[in-house]
Amino acid sequence: MSSVAPAELPIDRELADGEAAEIAEHEPSTKAGRVKKRLTSRTATIASIVIAVLWTIPTFGLLISSFRPAELIRTTGWWTIFQNPGFTLENYQDVLFSASSSSPQLGAYIVNSIAITLLGTLITLVFAAMAAYAFAWIKFKWVNWLFIFVFALQIIPLQMSLVPLLQIFSTVLRPMQAWLHDIVPIIPEQNYLPLWLAHAMFGLPLAIFLLHNFISDIPGDVIEAARVDGATHGQVFFRIVLPLATPALASFAIFQFIWVWNDLLVALIFSGGTQDVAPITQRLAELVGTRGQDWQLLTAAAFISIIIPLIVFFSLQRYFVRGLLAGATKG
Amino acid sequence: MTTADLLGKILQVVMGLAVFAAVVGLLIFLIDKAPKKGRDYWQLAGFLAPAMIFLAVGLVYPAIRTGILAFQDKGGDWTFDNFVWMFTQPAAIRTLINTIVWVALVPVISTAIGLAYAMFIDRSRGEKFYKVILFMPIAISFVGASVIWRFVYEYRSGDREQIGLLNAIVVAFGGDPVQWLQTDPINTILLIVIMIWIQTGFAMVLLSAAIKGVPSEQIEAAQLDGTNAWQRFMNVTVPGIRGSLVVVFTTISIATLKVFDIVRTMTAGNFNTSVVANEMYTQAFRASEVGRGSALALILFVMVLPIVIYNVNVLRKQREIR
Description:
The structure holds 2 protein chains of 2 kinds.
Chain A: H1 13-23, H2 31-66, H3 70-75, H4 90-97, H5 106-137, H6 143-152, H7 159-183, H8 193-215, H9 220-228, H10 233-244, H11 246-262, H12 265-270, H13 280-290, H14 295-315, H15 317-327
Chain B: H1 3-32, H2 39-69, H3 81-88, H4 90-121, H5 127-135, H6 142-153, H7 165-172, H8 186-213, H9 216-224, H10 229-240, H11 242-257, H12 261-266, H13 276-286, H14 290-321
Helix pairs in contact in B: 1-2, 2-14, 3-4, 3-14, 4-8, 4-11, 5-8, 6-8, 8-11, 9-10, 11-14, 13-14
Family (chain A): Belongs to the binding-protein-dependent transport system permease family.
Subcellular location (chain A): Cell membrane
Organism (chain A): Agromyces allii
């Protein structure tokens, strides 16, 4: 069995056999049939090109526009780029580096996104791997029931936990944050802690489930042998289980990375919205609200916000697809 | 962002990493030093503790609490008012209807286009390239996708040149430009288009993998028997990938029921475009109507529940077959 669930998506072979036998009685091959087949494959090619173009155009338009001068974006369509040529990097300069208070100042938000994503992914991964190891290799009767319960938690929509969790955070975490700010003034009172914890909490059920699938497939002999040689569970976990589970860890890490990076809902509720904490998605959504007509800013800002997940996507596509297929039901 | 800000942020991350490493290290140390008596038990508890505490605080308790809040008014007295509001107020009913429209359209259309596309490009030249193109929106955030499509739907009044692609096409065919996002009910449909744009790639990749799993002997046998492409598709391929179709369809349905970012970014739920997940946020966190927000969250849970159960059952049956 491969690491992550989706690779093993399902084919009902028996059913397919039955159906195939059924069609065996249909009409024989004809010349017309062959011509028709060639035609369909040509139609298929055209149809797929049309779909591919339709799917690309919106993103393409955004990309082109982000490099056009503000005046041209405002007055002409991006598809008239050859009649109305113009190229500038000013939009990117504006959204990234301009210090004026009216500009988007995305730099700070990118740093926030990176900081949130880093620990939001790491905490989930380590805690989930520990739990998955315990579920797979430390035997107790009732542990199976607990595992099923954790799996079932995936059905709780994020929305179900937002209000109470915010209340918990503001009574428990807020004093801690204020205290930290008093000791180390350079750390703002609003900090990343609530977002790290929230993302870890929401990511865990799926992470445990996926990693358990993989970790329980590690050959029992390997672990038994290490145990017999006197290795503790801690040693087995760090020296054997984690290295062997790297592919599954990578798949899930990438999925969680993209998920946290692209999240808006959790950020809206737990970040407070200042540039001390808010991630770039939240800033972008805010810009749409306040600067909805300034397309030179919006196009460049949107492109900056999507470029990092896209880089991850293109460079680690294989892992990404695996993680994504596996994690499709999250949220 | 000043240098001090940046330093503060880096310090936070470094401290976060250090504290986290210390917690994990200490925990493992304690696990290894667990008392001899009932050792396995302690070790198990140690490995499970962090995840279980997180789940209890982050999901189990809050979900129960939300379930209770849904049946309380602001003073904490028991009431059904939140549900009465949801099923009688026109705006709230519209939210429910919109959600149903979303979930009726997105899964069907995404799956259909994704399946057709996967069939069309199967074993063709440049298959990988075609796949990446359709799949790319998956990596783009809903917020990013919303900006991309807002630009397509942009409206310019009067005789000014249209800079939104959709209105430019309408004008080119002699029509009058439309304020797409403000016009009910077309605006909901246009938001749905964005979700379809994102989800089709997911459907395509999954179904493409499934299509490749259909034994080629079966296809060839059907071919020898003189069936045409459509007959082969309906009678060999579709039955062969039925399981995957169910998974794709249900997964997209769940994602659609929970859709929030698109509506929030495009219209913030104005102009009759709100859906349950967006209205939940608006009520609970903008209007301070915690009871109503909780009731909406509960409805969301109730809508998702049967789909998830069905999905899990299908997956389980498939595991048993193999």
